[in-house]
């Protein structure tokens, strides 16, 4: 039985979900609505421990929570860049960007492009775009 076919029972600790729990939820996001999650849940899960899971979910065009995962990747990228990679390893960030450019669809290539633009020009950071989902909703490429 795959993750997509099983029933998601909920999070043992929603503030610190496991990669398996996040993946199971992502394929059944209506089982635990985002509105029932702790405040700023997106900021809580957009860290190093779950970034590879979030990346895989964002790369999967069939994932029902793909936009949420992509939103968390924007948070992750901005957090790393704005802290000069004290918050997240530069190497992991670059690996994700490279992977998105090589194997991602247009949405993921846009994320990678925007991350590279922000890396080159950190002054372009706008909280609404990077942390409140603006770039995800608009699927806009930064100049």
What is the fold's blueprint, element by element?
Layout: H1 19-26, H2 41-45, H3 48-59, H4 66-82, H5 90-103, H6 106-120, H7 127-131, H8 134-138
Helix pairs in contact: 1-3, 3-4, 4-6, 5-6
Notes on the structure:
The chain is mainly alpha-helical and 143 residues long. It has a domain at 41-138. It has 8 helices and no strands. The N and C termini lie far apart (44 Å). The model has no long low-confidence stretch (mean pLDDT 93).
Average residue pLDDT: 93
The percentage helix is 55-70%
Biggest sheet character: none
Radius of gyration: 15 Å
Shape: globular
How far is the first residue's CA from the last residue's CA? 44 Å
Low-confidence stretches: none
Number of helices: 8
Number of strands: 0
Tell me the strand percentage band: under 5%
Counting helices, strands and paired strands, the structural category is: mainly alpha
Secondary-structure element order, as H and E? HHHHHHHH
